[in-house]
Design brief:
592 residues, alpha/beta, 4-stranded antiparallel β-sheet, 40% helix, 12% strand, disordered N terminus, PyrdxlP-dep_Trfase_major
């Protein structure tokens, strides 16, 4: 390091090149004006240096603090050869034009070292989504809406705004549909089941692929003397074809009889998307074997997190959803979106706080609240959770914006369509990649490693959602038990689900599990310890592995999952894998 020498004093004589003496000017002090100007110059110089330092800091730390541009490819994730190939094959489908890497890097600190693949069970929230919720709660006072004080009015106004936002998100006319808040999809289905006007001539018709919560409605029907029928999609298609070509008279019941048909927009087990034109076919009489009127219940819980639902085009009588499946937070909140004409036929007996405007203790007299939604919302609504909904919609909208959106409380249908079409494309690209990679994986002897359940092999975005259910096959062609696989996956931070995903119809159909085996298994459970392995019965799986993807899933997530299944199980038999896990347990490295 060099050091500068100190300057000579101003009055030091300067040697002359001649011998003639030269007069030296007398030292003059600075005037007050000069000193002032120097001070100003010094301040400006320091300010300029600070400003340049700030710009340098922003250029190196900007993505965490201020996001104004779309991140460049590779800015937040490593561009591997496999990812480069994937991006080339899915140009315009994956990543929201490059935004997904930035979102994953800055908005999911709670993920840490976890890989999440259970979006059909619950969505995931973003950091700024929660920050917006907290800021709202810090800035506003909310109270029980069953009053007229300021905090109550604030809650009541927020709840009404949320109802409107939900209707707008699904493009539903408020003159035609009402939003009834519930604890979730199950709570919404329960309202329909217990208040539907069943009679001894009514039929509860439902597709085999349905969640347990839908199957449970048949108990309400049976209690009122009605019947139930389980039908598969192929049978419905055959019935429609025959009725369209030959005509098929309806039998039983009367024109006044009420029937209920229930089906999922997307199967939560296989990810199969059901044709939404089934709704109109039951409404116009093209489907339905019995005389009377068919009402349609659409379970949209697995569908709406990654697909748009347009209730101006498809008009079921009842739609059930869970908001936490859409955007992670708040949990414990869903909705029954009911057609006003259909809600009017529901008969509710129980009343509570918030559902009636007047009641008498010593006489059987009540006056229901005039608003349809209030009649079915027992007790105090979770108003703080409802206040958080608009920020969940903002989180979804953020996939199409470089800045955090603020219109989740009042979304336009065009914004919703753009957002959900982007999410559909993104998640489809990922599930299709995972399916292609794992379904083509083989052991060294050429035998396949995986068996999938669904329509993934059609590679059709309109028929298949981002849910993959499968079992792994060992080198001899036998099934691996999914219990040990899930235990090891949990140890490695992989969040997957195993079993039947609360959808026995789809599960047992795809696995060809006979009803007798299930009944025998129940007896087996009761007579054996809780630790008994129940994934394989008589060499046959009675469940499977589910990987479900969501709008925040990244290529890196899917790559980790694929690598885990292939590297862990390739060229092994089920017994070899079991022995490995038991050895780890004895050595104190318990995968559980």
């Amino acid at each position: 390091m060099t050091q500068r020498s100190r300057s000579q004093p101003l009055d030091t004589p300067v040697p002359s090149s001649t011998s003639q003496p030269r007069s030296v000017p007398q030292k003059r002090g600075r005037t007050g004006l000069e000193k002032c100007l120097l001070t100003v110059l010094l301040i400006l110089t320091i300010g300029l240096l600070c400003f340049l330092s700030f710009l340098l800091f922003q250029s190196t730390n900007g993505p965490e603090r201020i996001k104004t541009t779309i991140p460049k490819l590779g800015e937040f994730s490593q561009l591997t050869e496999s990812k480069a190939k994937f991006l080339a094959q899915n140009k315009g489908l994956y990543g929201y034009n490059g935004r997904i890497d930035h979102i994953a890097a800055t908005q999911l600190p709670h993920m840490k070292d976890q890989t999440y693949a259970d979006y059909a069970g619950s969505g995931v929230y973003q950091k700024r989504q929660i920050e917006a919720v907290m800021k709202n709660l810090e800035s506003n006072l909310y109270g029980n809406a069953h009053s007229i004080n300021p905090s109550a009015k604030n809650s009541d106004h927020t709840i009404q705004e949320a109802r409107n936002a939900v209707l707008k998100w699904f493009n539903a006319d408020p003159k035609e549909y009402t939003v009834i808040f519930t604890p979730g999809t199950t709570g919404a289905i329960k309202i329909v089941g217990e208040t539907f006007p069943w009679s001894t001539e009514s039929t509860f018709l439902y597709t085999r692929s349905n969640h347990n919560s839908v199957l449970g409605v048949r108990e309400y029907a049976l209690d009122k003397g009605a019947t139930f029928e389980c039908i598969d999609l192929d049978s419905l298609k055959s019935e429609f074809d025959v009725r369209s070509s030959q005509g098929l008279p309806k039998s039983g019941g009367t024109d006044e009889t009420n029937h209920l048909f229930a089906f999922p927009a997307e199967c939560n087990y296989s990810g199969e998307k059901y044709p939404l034109d089934l709704i109109e076919k039951f409404k116009n009489g093209s489907l339905g074997m019995k005389k009377g009127k068919y009402y349609v219940l659409l379970d949209a819980a697995a569908f709406v997190p990654t697909s748009k639902l347009d209730l101006s085009k498809y008009k079921p009588d009842f739609v059930t959803i869970s908001f936490y499946k859409m955007f992670g937070y708040p949990s414990g909140l869903g909705a029954l979106i009911a057609k006003n004409s259909a809600a009017n036929i529901l008969h509710k007996s129980f009343f509570s706080g918030g559902t009636v405007s007047l009641s008498i203790a010593d006489d059987d007299f009540i006056q229901w609240m005039p608003e349809m939604c209030s009649r079915f919302e027992d007790g105090t609504l979770p108003f703080l959770n409802i206040a958080a909904l608009k920020y969940g919609f903002d989180a979804l909208l953020s996939t199409q914006s470089d800045e955090w959106p603020t219109n989740g409380g009042d979304p336009s249908w065009e914004d919703v369509k753009k957002t959900m079409d982007g999410i559909t494309a993104h998640t489809f690209a990922l599930q299709d990649y995972f399916y292609r990679e794992l379904s083509s994986a083989t052991h060294e002897n050429g035998k396949p490693m995986a068996e999938f359940y669904g329509h993934h092999d059609r590679h059709n975005i309109r028929e298949q959602g981002p849910i993959l259910n499968f079992n792994m096959l060992d080198a001899s062609g036998k099934y691996f038990g999914f219990f040990e696989i899930s235990a090891l996956a949990a140890k490695k931070g992989l969040n997957i689900r195993t079993g039947c995903s609360c959808n026995p119809g789809a599960c047992y159909d795809y696995l060809n599990v006979p009803t007798t085996l299930i009944k025998d298994t129940v007896a087996h459970i009761h007579h054996n310890s809780c630790g008994e392995r129940l994934d394989i019965v008589s060499g046959h799986p009675i469940g499977s592995i589910r990987v479900s993807l969501g709008y925040l899933t990244t290529f890196e997530d899917v790559e980790k999952l694929k690598t885990f299944f292939i590297d862990t199980l390739r060229n092994k038999t089920d017994q070899q894998f079991l022995d490995e896990q038991q050895l780890q347990t004895r050595m104190g490295d318990d995968p559980l």
